[in-house]
Amino acid sequence: MRKYSFLWMLLPAFILYSVFIAYPFFSSLGLSFYDWPGIGPKKFIGLANYKNILSGFMSSEFYNALWHNVVFFIWSLILSVVPGLFFAFLLAANMKGTGWLKVVFFFPNTLAIVVVGFLWGLLLNPQWGLINQLFRVVGLDFLAKPWLGDTKTALPTIIFVTAWRGLGFYILIYLAAILGVDREMIEAARIDGASELQIASRIILPHLYSIIATTSMLKFIWTFNIFDIVYAMEGTQGGPAGSTDVLGTLFYRIAFGGLGASQVGMGLGATVVTLIFLIVLPVSIFYVFIVEKRVEKGE
Amino acid sequence: MAKKLSIVLLLIAMLSPMYAQQKTVSIWGWRAQDVDVWKGVEAALKAKGEQISIRYEVFPPTEYDSKLLVSLQGGVGPDIMYTRRLPGARTQALLDNGYLTAINGLVDLSNFDDVSLSFISTDNKVWGVPFANQIIGIFYNKAIFDKYKLKEPQTWDEMVQIAETLKKNGVTPFFVTGKEAWILAMQNAMVGVSYPGDEWIGKLTVGKAKFTDPEYVNMLKDLNALKKYYQKDFMANTSAEQDVAFAMEQAAMVFYGVWGNTNWLKMNPDLKFDYFPIPPKDKNVPARAYTYMDGAYGLNNTSKNKEAALKVLNYTGTKTYGELFSSTTGEITAIKGVTMPASKPILVKCYEKMTTIAAKNRYWVGSPFDAGTPSVYNILEKDMQSMYLDQMTPEALAKRLQDGISTWYPAFKK
Questions:
Q1: Residues A241, B232: C-beta atoms closer than 8 Å
Q2: Domain of B266: which CATH number?
Q3: Cα–Cα distance measured from residue A34 to residue A53, given in angstroms and rounded to the nearest whole number
Q4: Same domain assignment for residues B216 and B231
């Protein structure tokens, strides 16, 4: 009996996991096979919701949103990893003011996304926003654009704002990894005549590959669940003309209806959620695998 | 000690019936501006000796309907719920599942006209107490119009001429909120009742006209051409920015609803503004105002507190309530015969237009085109942005409307 006493210790976590993760997921999965406006009896329709989303009347909106998630992931990854590594190396050099810079870089991360969306909405106002005013003052009038009102610039702008907010997180993670590299190895390379660039690229960077892989996978998972920043900056429609629509806003519109007059479609919304889960699942499994490998290696 | 204890017990015994009679009526809605209205209702009911407290919960408009539906399904809904209009898929869902009580005979509805009640009725059954009527159209700055000796236009071309005059004089003729898709849908709808017109929409409703008809396509072309008179980069502006621009007299006209007046006057109490309906292209077609019943208070059929809830609903059907509603929110009550506050001349003017030139037919909210998916509203929200961004032609937008509505609207399927 004592052999299985550990099960009692697992019980609280199991209950919490079941109630808040497993049940909602399986409930949502089940709902995706029904036509249900959120009220009244559910009508079983098999795979019809999946057909409507993947090849039916919702397919163009779904693939449009999916593509935006892909673009969002690629660009926000580049805008997070590259500057993140750059500033982490700079901070690791321990120059004057490093501590202050860490606070500055991390500060946007402490702001709620809705606040970030609101602030950037003000900054980007086409008539009196600070960004366009600055461009006009320095003679770069051609850059004073309706950033959030143009289909060409709206999504890149939101990606930039997201990367700006999250940069501090990546800097801190990479900085911790850089500082974790064996100092003796770096000193030995220095004595052997290696330049700082060689040390950075041939000794430190290879040590960061697994942490870069880990953060990239986290970025993938976060990006495919993104909703709040688009909602805060462009509303539920993912405007203008659907140019910033992502799977999160598409789900929201289908399941909750937005301001339009349509009936809400909980079953169809649950289908979008299930598809998001299926996209994110393989990456999540791989992420867990990578993390376990790192733990085994003692990194 | 025993004496003190007996006094306390006596007090408890005296007070407990009062608490026992106290009823709390829960109300759910999407209108944050109504908080003070409900405080006023509670005070008025208490003054009449009714021991009723009101707990009003506000939800974001975009989430309200789904939260209400799911909560009712789970048996935790409010006693009174704000409902939208009929025909309309969301209100219909409440009806189909038996969550609304027909209030004929339970609430005195003699203070409402038939048009207001028609927005929340089916088969002579009334499903809620209408709370506000809205009117949409063009609100203009009187000082700017006076400065350039401009008068309310009688035709579309006169309106374009006014815009031209203003633009030449360095004034932004129109402030338009391209970032908020629903306002563009509303703009399209308010233009439609005058151009191509009320009568044409009547034909559209019975399937004798199509969105692809030249009358409608020409309207879309003219509306698209009007954008040269909008503020620069209008596709990136929100309604909050519009409020600031109009209140601070940075633009002469806005396409909006009467509810905007409260914000404008808060920002600039000296602002002088007025209203005109969208003028028709053809001067032989009458200018019409797009009006609609904004919503109603529905009685939850599963409420365990119906008696108290009905007392609240009966109060919301009185002229006293209508006066309270209009003076508190700055909007037009759905109760007929209520004198609009003289301190708000815009309400007096809009109320007069509402009773004299309201369109009978419409294709946006409160219309039969609002009852299925995709609705005209859904299509216009996205496609008006595309048209203004030159990514969709007026002809293509008209075709998208015709094709989309034809998938479910009976008169288009014939």
A1: no
A2: 3.40.190.10
A3: 14
A4: yes
CA distance B401 to chain A (A): 15
Query: CA-to-CA distance for B407 and B403, rounded, in angstroms?
Result: 7
Provide the number of structural domains found in chain B.
2
Mean pLDDT per block of 10 residues along chain A (299 residues) reads: 81 92 91 86 92 90 96 96 93 82 89 93 92 94 92 96 95 93 91 90 90 91 94 89 94 74 76 93 84 69
H or E stretch covering A75 = helix A59-92
| Segment B98-134, tens digit of pLDDT | 999 999 999 999 999 888 898 999 988 999 999 999 9
Quick one: B397 and B378 in the same domain? yes
Are B368 and B252 found together in one domain?
Answer: yes
Which tokens in the block code for residue B65?
């309907």
Question: Kindly report the CA angle at A217 between A212 and A218, in degrees rounded to 5?
Answer: 95
Looking at the complex, does the CB of residue B378 fall below 8 Å from at least one CB of chain A? yes
CATH architecture, domain defined by A40-297: Orthogonal Bundle (1.10)
Are B59 and B141 within one domain? Answer: no
Name the residue among B188, B181, B386 with its Cα closest to residue A151: B386
* Phi, then psi, of A67 in degrees rounded to 5: -60, -40
Quote the domain boundaries for residue B27.
Answer: 22-133+293-355
Of B94, B178, B370, the CB nearest to A240: B178
Residue range B289-317, pLDDT digits in tens: 999 999 999 999 999 999 999 999 999 99
Residues B191 and B272 in one domain: yes
Type of residue found at B373:
T
Q: Is the pLDDT of residue B14 over 70?
A: no
